[in-house]
Amino acid sequence: YHPVAKKIVDSPIARAMYKRREIVVKEAPESVIERFNDVWDQIQADYYIADCERLARIYGISSLAVVPTRPGVKPEDAVTQQEYWSGDFRFNSLDPLNTAGSLVGILNPNDPEFMKYESISVMGQPYHRSRTHIQLHENPIYLSYTGSAFGYVGRSVFSRALYPMQSFIQSMIADNLMMVKSGVLVAKVKQPGSIIDRLMAAAQDVRLNILKMAQTGNTISIMPDEEIESLDLNNLTYAEQRKNILENIALSLDMPPSFLTGDSLSQGFGEGEQDAKLIASYIDRIRLDMKPIYDYMDS
Fold first, then answer.
1. 52, 136, 215, 243: which one has the fewest Cβ atoms less than 10 Å from its Cβ?
2. What is the pLDDT of residues 101-147, one digit of tens each?
3. Taken in order 79, 80, 82, 84, is the CA torsion positive or negative?
4. Are 116 and 63 in contact, with CB atoms under 8 Å apart?
């Protein structure tokens, strides 16, 4: 629900997946690649890959499951090539609450499965290992329990950015206050004496109502020694502070600031080229993080 949360989570994934992969099958006709891409689109593979990575970035861990639709086939059964060929299956993207209790992990350092996660259970229904892929965002740490993922797993992208994200909300509150106060008019008018009758009070109200209803094209009159002005909000500017907040959020995420600030690449003294290299290296890291999901979908 945070104003920049979608950019933090989805923007790197969208940039990493903006272009279709180039599939090469040696010594195979072009129709093989075309058929692969057709099936890839039919099962909405790109959508589920992006959704699995998105949930992992939000919570620290997520799962992708092949759910059978053929009668008699259960989730605990191993997936077969015949099931893939028939198309009697669907993909489900699962967040940590869906798989809570099954991804606690083995915390015995002497166990070969220490801090490894290979199978899931959803609402008490176990899934065969061949039917699931588990995606972690960052590596699990034995001394760091991840509350959003209900286990000793990866961590949310928001964990390190909570404080500057709160500051961003405060800057929006200040913006709203400026907009609310920007329409206030200050009327420096003579006030009646301590003894005021109802007639004088009514006359004063009429003058203020005329001022309130005045707009472009109208003419109002005031006394020579009276003055009407708006509140002085010229010094209340938050553009630079907000940019600094966004850069702090990007710093906590090890993300290029331009992803959040929307700034164009620098143009002088080769800085633009260096910015482009920084963005390219960051996108390459995102693609490496997503490679296990692609490998699972390819298989």
1. 215
2. 888 878 888 988 888 888 899 998 999 999 999 999 988 888 888 88
3. positive
4. no
Question: Does 18 or 187 have the greater pLDDT score?
Answer: 18
**pLDDT higher than threshold 60 for residue 272:** no
CA–CA gap between residue 10 and residue 56 (Å, rounded): 11
Query: What local confidence, expressed as pLDDT, does residue 76 receive?
Result: 93
What whole-number distance in Å separates Cα of residue 161 and Cα of residue 262? Answer: 18
Return all residues near 193 (Cβ < 8 A) that are at least 6 apart: none
Distance of alpha carbon 249 from alpha carbon 282, whole angstroms: 15
- The torsion defined by the Cα of 13, 14, 15 and 16, in degrees rounded to 10, comes to 50
Q: Which residue has the higher pLDDT, 141 or 218?
A: 141
Can you give the three-state secondary structure of the chain, one letter per residue? CCCCHHHHHHHHHHHHCCCCCCCCCCCCCHHHHHHHHHHHHHCCHHHHHHHHHHHHHHHCEEEEEEEECCCCCCCCCCCCHHHHHHCCEEEEEECCCCCCCCCCCECCCCCCCECCCCCCEECCEECCHHHEEEEECCCCECCECEHHHCECCCCCCCCCCHHHHHHHHHHHHHHHHHHHHCCCEEEECCCCCCCCCHHHHHHHHHHHHHHHHCCCCCCCCCCCCCEEEECCCCCCCCHHHHHHHHHHHHHHCCCCCHHHHCCCCCCCCCHHHHHHHHHHHHHHHHHHHHHHHHHHHHC
Identify the pLDDT of residue 77.
93
The confidence band for 55, taking pLDDT boundaries of 50, 70 and 90, is: very high
Instruction: Give CA separation, 49 vs 93, 94, 104, 230, 282, in Å.
Output: 9, 12, 23, 54, 19
Q: What pLDDT score was predicted for residue 121?
A: 92
